[in-house]
Amino acid sequence: MEGSSIWKKLLVLLVLASFIIGCQPPAQPTPEAQPPAVEETQPPSEAKPVELTFVTWSYGVETIADNIKKFQERYPNITVTHKDYSWLEYHDTMVAAFAAENYPDLVYGSDHWLQEWASAGWLVPIEDYCPDVKEYSAELAPYALEGMTYEGKVYGLSYYADTIDFVYNEALLKKAGFDKAPETWDDVYTMAKALKEQGLQYPIIMAWSQKEGAFPEAWTSMVFSQHEGHHALFDADLKPTFNKEGSAAYQIMEWLVKVYNEGLFNPASLTTAEIDQVKAMQAGQAAFTIFPQYNMAEVNKPGSGEYAGQFKIALMPGKSHATVGYVRFYAMTPGVVNKGPEYIDAACKFLHYFGGKTDGQYLVVKRWAVENGLGFAQLPLYQDPDVIAAFSSWGDVPTIEQQAKLARSKEGLTTWYGAWDIFARAEIHKAILGETPIVDALNNMANKWLELAQ
Amino acid sequence: MTTLDHAVIRRKAKLWDRLYPYFSVLLPILVIGLFTIYPVLYAVRISFYQYILTKPKVHPFVGLANYIEVVTSYYFRNSLINTAVYTVAAVIGITLFGLGVALLLNSKIRSANALRVIILLPWAIPAVVGGLIWKWILNSDFGILNGILYAAGFIKEYIPFLANPNLAKLSLIMAAIWKEGPLAAIFFLAGLQLIPNELYEAAKIDGGGGWKIFRHVTLPLLKPIILIVVIYETITAILVFDLIYVMTGGGPGDATSMISWFAYAEIFKNLNLGHGVALAVIIALIILALILAYLRIIKYEEVVG
Amino acid sequence: MGITLKRQIGSFFGNLLVFLLIIYILGPFLWMAIASFQGENELLKRPPSIIPQNPTTDNYRYVFTGEIPTAYEVKGQLRSRISQEARLIAPALKNSFIVAIVVMVINLLIGTPAAYTFARINFRGKALWYNFILGSRLIPVMAVAIPYYVIIKNLKLLDTYQGLILIYCALTLPFTIWFLSMYISNIPREMEDAALVDGCTPFQALVNIVVPLMAPGLVAASAFAFMTSYNEFLFARLITQSIKSQTGPVIIASIAGNPDASYSLISVCITLGLIPPLILAITMRKWLTEGLSASITFR
Question: ipTM for the complex?
Answer without folding.
Answer: 0.86
